[in-house]
Design brief:
Length: 359
C-alpha cells in the first residue's frame, strides 16, 4: 500500500502527472489513507515551497452590478442575495485597504472587480493604480477583473501587474450548469492573453457546485496544460439568494483530497486554500497546509473569513511559517495591526451561515 503513495510523490517530484485513474482514486478511492495521501502531496510542496505559507489579502474594489449570471456569485444579475453594490472604489479607499494588508503582513494584495471584464480605459485606470500601489507598498499585486483580451493585458503588463486571476471554476462540460452568459473558453482565452503579455496567471476552481470527481480531475489537468503557477481552490460558500447552492459533497476529507490532487498534478504551482476554507475544512484546516502553500486571510469577495490572528496561530501551531513580504525579513505584523484586522474593512461582507455549510 505504501508503494502507491510513494509512487505518487515520486511522480510529482519528477514532474510526471498521475494517470487519470490515479487522479480519480485520489478523490474517490475507498482505500485511500488520508494521512498517507497528505504526506505524498507534502513531498513536492516541501521541495518547492519548504514550510512557508504565502498569505494573501483579497479586496473587492467593485461590488455587484455585474451583468453576468454565474449562479454561485452574490454579485450576479440573477442573485437575490443582499449585497451592497458599489462602482469602483476611490483611489483613497483602495490605498487605505492596501495599507492595512501591508501592515497585516500580506505578501500579495489581490484586487477583484465584479463585472464581465474591463474596457481599455478601465484597464488604463487600473494600470495607474497598480503602478502606485507597487511603488508605495512593495507587495505583489494580483488583479481579478473578468474576461479580457491582449490590449487590456498589455496595458496591465506594462504597469507591472504580477498576476492576473481568472478562475476556470469548473470543467468545460459542467460550465453551462453554473453560467450561461459567457463560456469556459472565454476564461481560457483570458488566461492565454495574460500569458502572451508576460503576466503570471492565477486560475483555479470552486468545488461543491454539483460537479463530479471527473470534472475536478479535468480542471486539474487543464491547469497543468495551461502551465498555471497559482491555483486557488474555493469551497463553495452557499449564499442565500444565489441560484447555485452547495451540493452536499464537501466534507473536510473531500476538500483535502482535492487539494492533494491539485498538488500532485501541479507540483510546482502555488496551491491556495481560498474561499470557504474555514467552514468546509473546519478542524482540519491545518492539514490543508500539507498540500497547499498559500491561503487568503480576512475574507473573500462577499463573505467574511478568519482574521489574521487566528490564521497566523493556525499556521504556527502546525509548524509552518509565513512567507515574508518582498524586502522584509520578518513577516510578523505588529500586534496592533493584527488586532485591527479582526474586522476587515468595508461593510459589504456577508457573514457565512456556518450551520448551512455544515448541516
Ligand atoms: S463571478 Fe464575476 S463575472 Fe460572474 S457574476 Fe460574479 S462578478 Fe460577475
Amino acid at each position: 500500500m505504501f508503494d502507491t503513495y510513494a509512487k505518487l510523490a515520486e511522480k510529482a517530484l519528477t514532474d510526471q502527472a498521475p494517470t487519470a485513474e490515479e487522479a480519480l482514486w485520489i478523490l474517490d478511492g475507498e482505500d485511500v489513507d488520508l494521512l498517507l495521501l497528505l504526506q505524498a502531496a507534502f513531498e513536492p510542496r516541501r521541495k518547492y515551497f519548504g514550510r512557508e505559507v504565502t498569505v494573501q489579502v483579497l479586496n473587492n474594489v467593485q461590488n455587484g452590478l455585474c451583468p453576468e449570471d454565474c449562479g454561485y456569485c452574490a454579485q450576479s444579475n440573477v442573485t437575490e442575495a443582499e449585497v451592497r453594490e458599489y462602482p469602483i472604489k476611490s483611489d483613497e479607499e483602495i490605498f487605505a485597504e492596501a495599507e492595512d494588508a501591508a501592515r497585516g503582513g500580506a505578501y500579495r494584495y489581490c484586487m477583484a472587480l465584479s463585472g464581465r471584464g474591463p474596457s481599455l480605459s478601465r484597464a488604463k485606470r487600473l494600470a495607474s493604480l497598480i503602478r502606485r500601489l507597487k511603488k508605495e507598498y512593495g507587495m505583489e499585486i494580483c488583479l481579478s477583473a473578468g474576461i479580457m483580451g491582449d490590449k487590456q493585458a498589455e496595458v496591465l503588463a506594462e504597469a507591472g501587474l504580477d498576476r492576473l486571476n481568472h478562475n476556470l471554476n469548473t470543467s468545460e462540460s459542467h460550465y453551462e450548469e453554473i453560467c450561461t452568459t459567457h463560456d469556459w473558453n472565454d476564461r481560457v482565452q483570458t488566461l492565454e492573453a495574460a500569458r502572451r503579455q508576460g503576466i503570471e496567471t492565477c486560475s483555479g476552481m470552486i468545488i461543491g457546485l454539483g460537479e463530479t470527481s471527473k470534472d475536478i480531475v479535468e480542471v486539474a489537468f487543464k491547469l497543468l496544460e495551461l502551465d498555471t503557477p497559482s491555483i486557488p481552490i474555493n469551497f463553495l460558500i452557499p449564499i442565500e439568494g444565489n441560484p447555485v447552492q452547495e451540493d452536499g459533497s464537501l466534507t473536510p476529507e473531500r476538500c483535502l483530497r482535492t487539494l492533494c490532487l491539485m498538488r500532485l498534478v501541479n507540483p510546482r504551482a502555488e496551491i491556495r486554500m481560498a474561499g470557504g476554507r474555514e467552514g468546509h475544512l473546519r478542524g482540519l484546516q491545518s492539514l490543508g497546509l500539507y498540500p497547499a502553500n498559500s491561503l487568503f486571510v480576512g475574507g473573500y469577495l462577499t463573505t467574511q473569513g478568519d482574521p489574521f490572528t487566528e490564521t497566523y496561530a493556525m499556521i504556527a501551531d502546525a509548524g509552518f511559517t509565513v512567507q515574508p513580504q518582498a524586502g522584509h525579513d520578518q513577516p510578523a505584523p505588529r500586534e496592533e495591526d493584527r488586532i485591527r484586522f479582526q474586522i476587515p474593512r468595508g461593510g459589504d461582507l456577508i457573514k457565512p451561515d456556518i450551520a448551512r455549510i455544515t448541516e
